[in-house]
Amino acid sequence: MEPLIHEDFVDKSGDIANSVHMKVMSRWFGIEEVQMKPFDFDYWNKSIIEFNNACENQNNDSIISCIQTLIDQINSRDDLIAEFLYVLENTKFYENAGTCIYSNDDKLVFKIAELIGRITFCSSDFVLHIFRNGFMGKILIGYKENQHMEQTVDVFFFIFNMIFEEDPDLRFFLIQNGIFDICSEAVLTQYNFEVFETIFNTIFSFFTKPLKFERLPVNPVSNLMLAIRTLFESMLLPKFPQYSFEQRVKIVLMCLKSFSLYCSDVTSASVLLMIGIPQLCYWVLTPDVQTDIRVQIGENLVNVINHAFYYGPQNYLSEFAKIINIQILAVYINLEYPMACKCVLTIIHHLFAYSKEALIAANNSGLLTTLFELVKDADFSMKSTIIGVICSVIVNAPPSIPLEMYLNNEIIDSLIDMIDTEVFWNKEIPGALLILSEMLPKDDEIYSVISQFIHLPELQPT
């Protein structure tokens, strides 16, 4: 049988977003060793003046040459003091740079965007300045009003990401000025793989950086999630020859990471459930959906479903639970893949609360016995997750499911140990202990242990 999860595609760092960010930064700034040297402010000022003169003369070749000279100077530094901004502020640099951004000359637009991107990387003062003087607005308009080469799109999204990381006010500005719509359009365009990495690097920042307001705007983000879903579905089969198998897998993993990062409260979980993303992730796990990459993405599919069950509202989850075949999820219960295993166990924990049918199916298939046996081999973290599922079984089981196997010291002690912890299911524990106690005579030793924690009536002397 084919392995359930392919080792080569397990994100061992546990953070796809961080690995994508590091790769994008390396592609931009880590390809060549650049010798650091003192910044020549006089030469920089002279080069800016030459750029402005070339713009006045409307000689694109000369303008591009001047921009390249500036880029070469910036490349020699990874940080710059504010002094280098003076000549930008006190000449027509921003006016001329804005004209370049609006140009129909693809090479010129790419070069001015590259210069801005590299200055943005080197100077947080520059980022704040272009926000305050309105130049950031020109960058957004220039991007939205023209079609661009792939390498230019790559640069613009690098700029958007650097700005989004800088400050909550800048994030608010980008959101107010349509950054989600820009991203939605971009993910639906068949750019090369490297451009997709830069686009998703920006998208990840939306969901990992603090904002000025409590929540992201629902409608633009919902549209972005729909666009990412479309990209996700399109990559399940090799429809596009420009993407290798490995690139398709990584694009899908970035899509799934976007879903799980976004799903962080009841509102976002509701959005994903309304547009069917967790449901789609479940269907991709089933044999009904044809795809050659299921093995590579299984761990991340169950992670999205887990987020939906953890944060989602009861009305949506009750409907979702009706379509889930617990045997599809049970395949992922494997201690060799702890992330996928814990996600599936948590999903099953929630599922039992919504579906008696799932509980009965789990019992009939022997899954409940399997979980009971797994407790012996699991480490502490996994054991607590399994005990949580057992707690859900005890609390939600219909009369047809026997619970006697849980009347043992290890299970009881584990439940009691979890009462004062911060596990999400600790409020279920007293109910589970009460149910177990009702199966015992009052002179039983286990009954006596339970009674100390949930105040059961003691055996009265005769």
What is the CATH homologous superfamily assignment of the domain at 325-462? Leucine-rich Repeat Variant
Coarse shape = elongated
Which structural class matches the secondary elements?
mainly alpha
Unreliably modeled segments: 8-14
Please count the beta strands (DSSP E, at least 2 residues each). Answer: 0
CATH class of the domain at 325-462: Mainly Alpha
Beta-strand share of residues: under 5%
Q: Please give the radius of gyration in angstroms.
A: 28 Å
What kind of sheet is the major sheet? Answer: none
Q: Would you tell me the overall average pLDDT? A: 87
**Can you give the helix content as a percent range?**
55-70%
Quickly give the CATH architecture of the domain at 325-462.
Alpha Horseshoe
Write the H/E string, N to C. HHHHHHHHHHHHHHHHHHHHHHHHHH
The third-level CATH topology of the domain at 325-462 is Leucine-rich Repeat Variant
Distance between the termini: 62 Å
- Secondary structure tally, helices: 26
Summarize the structure.
This protein has 462 residues and is mainly α. The chain has helices at 16-29, 41-56, 60-74, 86-89, 93-101, 106-122, 124-132, 135-145, 150-166, 168-176, 179-187, 193-208, 218-234, 245-262, 266-274, 277-285, 294-311, 314-322, 326-330, 338-354, 356-364, 367-374, 380-396, 409-417, 429-437, 445-454.
